[in-house]
Amino acid sequence: MAQPNPETHVIAFRAAEQLLDARDPRGAIKLLDTVIAAHPESRSARLLRARAYFASAQLRAAEREFQHIVDREPDNAFAHFALARTFQRAGRPEQATRHFRLAAALDPKPEYLEKAGFDTAE
Q1: Angle, helix 43-55 to helix 25-38, in steps of 10 degrees
Q2: Domain residues of the chain, as ranges?
Q3: Phi, psi of 76, rounded to the nearest 5 degrees
């Protein structure tokens, strides 16, 4: 069997994006597992796999992946927001609030501000 090359991993990543968009997170996870095995520090692959775990209600796995991103990119507002949503869905509101607030502080998008409970009126 031929060894996968970097191009194969790009194709697998793009296919995983399509599977997630088509609401097949488990299929996306399978493809991303091979990409991450070859490129363990690929933050984009890990972020996509975290989203797939979240979409398939694998909250502990989603938390682990989002936390991996936050640990390496503490200024990644989306990763904080997604981690907060994961905590919220898992019934851990205190941890969710912390990360909603971090996300809003890093990127004052209306959605982030609302979830953080910050007043958006001027």
Answers
A1: 150
A2: 1-65, 74-122
A3: -85, 95
Three-state SS letters, 3-27: CCCHHHHHHHHHHHHHHHHCCCHHH
Query: pLDDT tens, position by position, for the chain (122 residues)?
Result: 446 677 899 999 999 999 999 999 999 999 999 999 999 999 999 999 999 999 999 999 999 999 999 999 999 999 999 999 999 999 999 999 999 999 999 999 999 999 998 865 54
Q: Are 100 and 87 in contact (CB under 8 A)?
A: no
Angle at 11 between CA 7 and CA 16, to 5 degrees: 145
Class of domain 1-65: mainly alpha
